[in-house]
């Protein structure tokens, strides 16, 4: 399903954008001891994950878009399941989903942001930094 070299593979598996093998985050998504901290380098291909200081501040734009997408999806799902629009039910569902999904959305926003700048390379072993 996920082709080798596709950005979707890197994003959904939260792996290095260049080699798709190395871990991108310091620890797991729901491990709060290192809340979605990005590693300095890829452990496999040694790609530097930060192009400049505060590189991942830009991922806030992606996180905002993901949050809005989740809210729209829950609103539509709520309407389809209930058959009518109930503001308090929809609002409560959105709050619960966003709180539960927050670490995952944060990690996704960072890996999506990284994939804007880094691209897959099948010969990454030759291009080690
Ligand atoms: Zn890598």
What does this molecule look like?
The protein is mainly alpha-helical. The protein has one domain (7-117). It has helices spanning 7-13, 59-82, 87-117. Helix 1 (7-13) crosses helix 3 (87-117) and helix 2 (59-82) runs antiparallel to helix 3 (87-117). It starts with 6 loop residues before the first helix and ends in a 12-residue tail after the last helix. The mean pLDDT is 91. The chain binds zinc ion. Residues 16, 18-19, 22, 42, 44-45, 47 line the site of zinc ion.
Write the layout of secondary structure elements.
Layout: H1 7-13, H2 59-82, H3 87-117
Helix pairs in contact: 1-3, 2-3
Give the key terms.
single chain, 129 residues, mainly alpha, 3 helices, elongated, binds zinc ion
Average of the residue pLDDT scores = 91
Question: How many independent structural domains?
Answer: 1
Main sheet attributes: strand count, strand direction, barrel closure: none
Using the alpha-carbon principal axes, give the shape: elongated
* List of distinct ligands in this structure: zinc ion
Structural class: mainly alpha
Tally of individual helices = 3
Cα end-to-end separation: 30 Å
What is the share of helical residues?
40-55%
The gyration radius over C-alpha positions equals 17 Å
Oligomer: single chain
Residue windows where pLDDT falls under 50 for at least 5 positions: none
- Beta content comes to under 5%
- Please write the string of helix (H) and strand (E) elements: HHH
User: How many extended strands?
Assistant: 0
């Amino acid at each position: 399903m996920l082709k080798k070299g596709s950005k979707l593979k890197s994003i959904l598996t939260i792996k290095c954008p260049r080699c798709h093998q190395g871990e991108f985050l310091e620890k797991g998504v729901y491990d709060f001891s290192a809340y979605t901290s990005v590693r300095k380098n890829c452990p496999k291909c040694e790609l530097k994950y930060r192009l400049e200081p505060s590189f991942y501040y830009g991922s806030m734009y992606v996180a905002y878009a993901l949050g809005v997408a989740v809210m729209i999806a829950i609103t539509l799902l709520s309407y389809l399941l209930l058959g009518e629009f109930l503001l308090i039910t929809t609002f409560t569902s959105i709050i619960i989903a966003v709180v539960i999904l927050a670490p995952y959305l944060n990690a996704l926003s960072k890996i999506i942001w990284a994939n804007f700048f880094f691209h897959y390379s099948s010969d990454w072993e030759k291009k080690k930094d």
